[in-house]
Here is the input.
Amino acid sequence: MPIPDFSTTPLSDLISLAGRRAVVTGAAKGIGAGIARRLAEAGASVLVGDIDETGAASVAEGLNAAFGGRHSHCRLDVADTSTLAAAADWVVSNWGGLEIWVNNAGIFPSTGPAMDVTDDFIDRMLTVNVRGSFAAAREAARRMDAGGVIVNLVSTTGFHAAPGISAYVTSKHAVVGLTKSLALEFASRNIRVVGVAPTVVDTPGVRDQMEPLAAAGLDIEKTMAGNLLGRAGVPDDIARVVLFAASDLAAFVTGSTIPADAGSLAGR
Ligand SMILES: NC(=O)c1ccc[n+]([C@@H]2O[C@H](COP(=O)([O-])OP(=O)(O)OC[C@H]3O[C@@H](n4cnc5c(N)ncnc54)[C@H](O)[C@@H]3O)[C@@H](O)[C@H]2O)c1
Here is the structure.
């Protein structure tokens, strides 16, 4: 399908998501909540999906209060494909179509030494981070009749290794490949697939991981700011890149994973 020429389209139209219908997974807090906010601000209707239904409801309520519109929420578990299909069906039935799906939900418990990682641990990590993104993208693409965009949250550890998190690193490298493969297969359906790879961002999930290590001497604030810009990332730093990827500003971008890394890859 030919890519339209946007060269005379006003910038405000290129970034606008008015009339588009979006699902963001894992959006009850952290980066996902930040993404839901920017997509809603840009005019999309957003379904906030999470295993934490109460948190998801509260984010959707906040979007409705801040931006009006018709944002909603659902309980969704990316490890249970039936809930992904149900969320996509809900959007199509209630809002008439689906154009944007953001695979944000992910888990990152530290693995410990690779020598000691159990099969159950590997299965859980790959089920949530890889199968969850794959199955969700498939369910979304099946319903994107007028084309669309799928954004996968990767990580800078989709490009490099780090000690003690081998299962996570493996899962995020897989999502880089998934992004390329789906972009290749979905291009003929006018669906772009784009990865966004954050460095460390200050979120509840990251705090949960780091706080137990503080007792053993980890300087959390210094670790979070360990990038070329010298400050911790916040969810909105990533949400703005996801907004770019989801909008027509990125109409010529597919199959790539965009680092949102504060130079941390350059500095390695
Ligand atoms: N925070 C970072 O430093 C960082 C860096 C690189 C990549 N990422 C990626 O960004 C994404 C979001 O990270 P975060 O730091 O905001 O996480 P977080 O733990 O703060 O929030 C994750 C959200 O996902 C939800 N969730 C977890 N498992 C789920 C499931 N099975 N189904 C549906 N929802 C589920 C949680 O309830 C929570 O609301 C993840 O994919 C993560 O790998 C984060």
Notes: The chain has two domains: 12-198+234-260, 201-232. The pocket of nicotinamide-adenine-dinucleotide is lined by residues 25-26, 28-32, 50-52, 55, 76-79, 104-108, 128, 153, 155, 198, 200-201, 203-206 (CB under 6 Å).
